[in-house]
Design goal:
This protein is mainly alpha-helical. The protein has a domain of about 140 residues: Lysozyme, CATH 1.10.530. The chain is built from 9 helices and 3 strands. A 3-stranded antiparallel sheet has the order 1-3-2. Helix 1 crosses helix 4.
């Protein structure tokens, strides 16, 4: 199975004062795709299922970002800021913190991007790893019994496909990986430049930073962009 080329960054706990948690944890069992014949109905069911989970996680990240911005402006909450910097793997010194790097990492992801990737990576929620492990983004893990062993795992490799208690956890882990992984620097740069220009989040542009998400590289980016362009109205619930 061809997926992430670097180890997954496992889910981190952020202080409850800035957390925005969904009312309930959603699992793959809650996605009922039975008796759906029309392909657009199938797509709409999937996007309607994933959209609120992604929006909730983006809202949590945005709330965290707002608190960081307030701390920078008021020069306070230094312990909190140092904790978040550590969580997002940013070297931090309270008197000379790298605010640009921290804020580049603590940011939301354009809604259509995780919608497209989750559809592609989970076969619209019907893959074995989605059904058995609530893994909607193909994330790998590298410790024994951390997930599900792929049936076609190459000889000599030790990775497993991560298992999550909920789809919410899978979304959170995916976003943490995008926001901290070294191979996604370009995506974060695109996002930061877009924000600085006062533009809305651009999923098509951000997709260009996924070149190392899959071994398919350019072909994968092209597939995700095509999916977004073709399904954008369904993704946004229009």
């Amino acid at each position: 199975m061809e997926k992430l080329l670097v180890p997954i960054f496992l889910i981190s706990t952020v202080t409850a004062t800035v957390a925005i948690q969904p009312d309930t944890s959603i699992t793959a069992d809650d996605l009922d795709m039975s008796n759906i014949i029309d392909i657009n109905d199938k797509k709409q069911r999937f996007f309607d299922f994933m959209r609120p989970i992604i929006i909730d996680e983006n809202a949590r990240i945005l709330k965290l970002r707002e608190k960081l911005l307030a701390a920078r402006e008021n020069n306070n909450d230094k312990t909190f800021v140092a904790h978040i910097a550590k969580t997002y793997t940013v070297d931090w010194h309270s008197e000379n913190g790298n605010w640009d790097k921290l804020l580049e990492r603590v940011d939301t992801i354009a809604l259509e991007l995780p919608l497209a990737q989750s559809a592609a990576e989970s076969a619209w929620g019907q893959s074995r790893f989605a059904q058995e492990g609530n893994n909607f983004f193909g994330q790998w893990c590298y410790t024994e019994d951390c997930g599900i062993i792929p049936k076609k795992r190459d000889k000599g490799t030790r990775h497993e496909v991560a298992s999550f208690k909920s789809v919410n956890d899978s979304v959170r882990s995916y976003m943490k990986t995008i926001n901290t992984g070294r191979v996604y620097v370009q995506l974060r740069k695109i996002r930061s430049e877009n924000r600085a220009a006062g533009k809305k989040p651009d999923a098509i542009a951000q997709a260009g930073g996924l070149i190392k998400y899959s071994q398919r590289r350019e072909a994968y980016v092209k597939e995700i962009r095509s999916m977004i362009r073709y399904n954008q109205k369904l993704m946004l619930g229009e």
